[in-house]
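Continuing the batch. This is chain 6 of the set; chains 1 through 5 are on the previous pages. Same settings as before, nothing changed between runs. Recording input and output for traceability.
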Amino acid sequence: MCKALKLGLLAFAVLGMTFLGCDKLANPIVNQPPDDPGKVTTADFPHVEQIIAGQTQVAGTVTIYATMDNIYVRYQTTGDWYLTEYHVHVIDDCEGGYGFPNHNGNPALNEFDYRDAFDPDQDVLVEIPWGDLLDSPELCFATHCALKRIVGGDTVETQTGWSGDQPFPGRNWALYFCIATPKVLRLPSHKVWVQYTQVSGNTPCQYRIWGVGTGYSIPDDGYYRSFCLDQGVYIYNHPYEGYLRTSFDPLLPDYIRYNRGTNPPVETPYDKINYLVDLFMDNYSGAGHPTAAEVAAFQQVFWYYRGYGSQPVEGSLAYTLWQAGESHDGWYPEGGDWMAVMMDLGANVQLCFIMVDP
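Output for chain 6:
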């Protein structure tokens, strides 16, 4: 994917910058190529649709995520709206709406594959195994919900909710939507071994990862470039056992999902971080190597996005990188783009990510 911002074209005089916590690495490391392509082919992912209550009111969102094992449908309501029930069905050929369970073109909710009723809630996650859907070019979703508007503990309104831009063919207002089937990183569900092997000045930190096994997007016993996201939480030069997670996983633990440097915590903007990861590796994954000042500028922005420090100073390289990240809200890697994979070593170990070309 062509980037509007190429570091080789930037004319900066960046003086007096140092990469905090890193010494110069004598032999810069280039990532080993992964075995298996595996990321989405559309920038519209994770995919978000509004929940429309009673045909006219926006009551929240439905978000579609994907991991190696599952598709996830997350219902999130806003304001006074609460969920009490959902019906979800996913198919690979909508047939103009007739591909869903239906009676004369009207959705047959009791025949949807995934359904549940529960006490009022504002955040519900539905897990759907891939099955045969992974090989299809398109996914179509029918996401119904029952809603209550609760004010002061009293229910003041009940409505039906649907999401999407395509109407069912029957005499109703039910909706569905279709998206390109996302490809996802093939990451192991078991723990792997991770070791911080060297620090650096003109190339990012380096990690060795082993115990992965075969058939995954990350080759076993590989060496990877990395940046860190935490300050004041340490990692040492010995093996750790932990999980590899995509930064877009809806099941990220809270200590990864939310900033540690902000109070109250806010979600870490992994869309913007991933854009800058891809920008960095587009410029430096080959023969070229960044200067220590360029590495420091990227690291400063990553820390800022994690809630540490103030906004980069206007006119600096870090400020330009921050502006590039800000202009890519909602960015998701496409084919050929680099991606951040989180090394989840527990809440008490520094959070770092490796940069992978899936």
